[in-house]
Automatic annotation (TrEMBL):
Record keywords: ATP-binding, Nucleotide-binding, Transport
Claim: Magnesium is one of the keywords in the record: no
Source species, domain of life: Bacteria
UniProt xrefs under SUPFAM superfamilies: P-loop containing nucleoside triphosphate hydrolases
Biased composition (Low complexity): 22-34
InterPro entries in the record: AAA+_ATPase, ABC_transporter-like_ATP-bd, ABC_transporter-like_CS, MacB-like_ATP-bd, P-loop_NTPase
Domain ABC transporter residue range list: 53-292
Phylogenetic classification of the source organism: Bacteria, Bacillati, Bacillota, Clostridia, Christensenellales
Gene Ontology, cellular component aspect: membrane protein complex
UniProt record similarity statement: Belongs to the ABC transporter superfamily.
Protein name listed in UniProt: ABC transporter, ATP-binding protein
Source organism: Christensenella minuta
Keyword Endoplasmic reticulum listed: no
Region: Disordered, residue numbers: 1-46
Length: 292
């Protein structure tokens, strides 16, 4: 799957996914199970817009020889197309577990996840690889850049997996990196970049395929506060300008407030969902719906 592993063993994606394989092509997703089921509307949905991600009664129980731990206890959530949703909660509340299940990086113990009406929870790993490569981008706290590749090569990597010829992928990577202020750092290796620059490279890599959905797990967790704000503004702009859907996990309420909606999670359960009226788009949409 997306966890392309580089020569030195760096993974390109999230935690606890060790058995997953690297994606290898840009061919359209094949072999996806037929759409025999659809998510019923979630309770408490605030609008009638078709969700791009639907999560139903999602349960994750981790079992080891010694422990059995319920990390998610039946989560329901709809995420609208073009929406920026932050999942907030304390350490160990289940945020990353929710993101990993929503992205198909881990399998649920029970429950369902639909992305664009595709049943992610029952897709085979090979189909998930293709699906993610074509529809989804990931951004992680630890950047997960390949340390043997330059800025340009890291950003262009997903296009290489899609079989795009070198000149074309370099041109596209240069354009995305320039927009992120990295035109002067194309030949740098990751260890020659600051943390904020590395995260911008990882954002470039995540958006270069123009994914409909971005998953971000504590994207500013390793950055100082000023750099973190810049990264949050970049993410917010990607949502606004490209219409990308963003699901971001954070323990930091300051960062959560960049989102259109904040989902609070505690002990593996959603305890509150808040429209963020600091974000004009979300509130305008709310007001419109209330009037309708
Ligand atoms: N592979 C695993 N095996 C056993 N327990 C696990 C596993 N992964 C996560 N857990 C447990 O599930 C709970 C939720 O973990 P998760 O990583 O989702 O929390 P989080 O809210 O993202 O925390 P943090 O903000 O600290 O990253 C934790 O109590 C954790 O110990």
């Amino acid at each position: 799957m997306l966890e392309a592993t580089n020569k030195t063993g760096n993974r390109l994606a999230g935690r606890k996914t060790a058995g997953q394989k690297a994606g290898s092509s840009g061919a359209p997703a094949g072999g996806i199970p037929p759409e025999t089921e659809k998510a019923a509307p979630a309770a408490g949905r605030s609008d009638d817009a078709e969700p791009i991600i639907s999560i139903r009664n999602l349960v994750k129980i981790y079992k080891t020889k010694k422990v059995r731990f319920r990390a998610l206890g039946g989560v329901d959530l709809d995420i609208r197309r073009g929406e920026f949703v932050a999942v907030a909660g304390t350490s160990g509340s289940g945020k990353s577990t929710l993101l990993n299940l929503a992205a198909g990086l881990e399998k649920p113990t029970a429950g369902k996840v639909f992305i664009r009406e595709k049943p992610i929870h029952k897709m085979k790993e090979d189909d998930l690889v293709e699906f993610r490569l074509n529809h989804v981008g990931f951004i992680f706290q630890s950047f997960n850049l390949m340390d043997t590749l330059t800025t340009l090569e890291n950003a262009a990597f997903p296009l290489m997996l899609r079989g795009i010829p070198p000149l074309k992928r370099e041109k596209e990577a240069k354009a995305v990196l320039s927009a992120l202020g990295l035109a002067g750092h194309l030949a740098h290796d990751p260890d020659e970049l600051s943390g904020g620059q590395q995260q911008r490279v990882s954002i470039a890599r995540a958006i270069i395929t123009k994914p409909e959905i971005l998953f971000a797990d504590e994207p500013t967790g390793n950055l100082d506060s000023e750099t973190a704000e810049q990264i949050m503004e970049i993410l917010q702009n990607i949502v606004k300008e490209n219409g990308t859907t963003l699901l971001m996990v954070t323990h930091d309420m300051e960062k959560a407030r960049y989102a259109d909606r904040i989902v609070y999670i505690a002990d593996g359960e959603v305890v509150k969902i808040e429209e963020n009226c600091g974000q004009k788009a979300a509130c305008a949409r709310d007001r419109q719906q209330r009037r309708a």
